[in-house]
Fold this sequence. Notes:
four-stranded antiparallel beta sheet, five-stranded antiparallel beta sheet, Tachylectin-2, Chain A
Amino acid sequence: MPLSRKRSLLAALAALLIGLVAAPPQPAAAAPAAPATFTNPLKAQGPDPWLTYYQGFYYLATTTWTNRITMRKSATLGGLKTAPDTLLFTLTRPNGAGTMWAPEFFLLDGPNGKRWYFYYTAGQEPYNLGTQRIHVLESAGLDPMGPYTFKADLLDPAQNNTWELDPSILQLNGNLYLLGTFYNGSQPMFIRPLSNPWTAGGTRRTLSTPTYGWETVGGAVNEGGEVLQRNGKTFIVYSASHCSTPDYKLGMLTYNGGDPLLSSSWTKSPNPVFQRNNAAGVYAPGHNGFFKSPDGTEDWLVYHANSSASGGCDLNRSTRAQRFTWNADGTPNFGTPVGLGVAIAGPSGE
Length: 350
């Protein structure tokens, strides 16, 4: 090799070595951020909560017991704690002008495409339990916060002589059904076919009657049925016993095939699936709902509960949430209620 070329190669190698020595060390890859945590309650006065995650935000509505329907919105679950209550709608119709209970909202197909349908219970003023009926609003677009217009009184076409409470929606086998509860001496749950999101397609049928001892504490009650579906299985998780007692709790029906309007098509679990946790100071956990984590990988339970055994059936029931898992047989495992102030990892994907 010519001497001049050899000197050039040696110079280049020296420059490379100097550059490697002088180059600053590269920082190590950043560790994944720890998941955000939150603590319950999400709303101190938040009975009968309904919570949905939709396009980057959580939306929460609860009972107001007034003529006002309100909603909270937050990018994180924990942020609902301080989010403002935004007014969605003011009730004015004489047959449903006040005492708004148990709101729930669903994105359903209507004549103008998908719309949010907001279901609630309300009665005549001054307060009269016997006049409580189910009503529904319709959104103008795809924003869960509206604006909304009144759509219909969801009255039973043949049995409108008793109050009906706690509306929810079941979609099964391509059909739409309304769930609720009524009074016939006790408080059973009903199911009614719908021809569209605001119109009854038939009269109500009794879905579940309170018969077990754990369903009759303080009163024989099955109410607040909520639909949970996974891997081809359909469950209805409902609240049992009277809401004024610490033994208000959750029971479960499992669909076993056949006509959903027949109570024989549903099997009731013999034991409650979620109930008071005295050690954690959680009493009367009930009137639940379900929602998914932002990334869709986790299932979450929202419910209300009291912090003392003497807590009543009023606005002081607080909104709470926690994750739940699934058993090997495909049934949900809700675990036990978590106490207030306990740090909980937020939903996956936040």
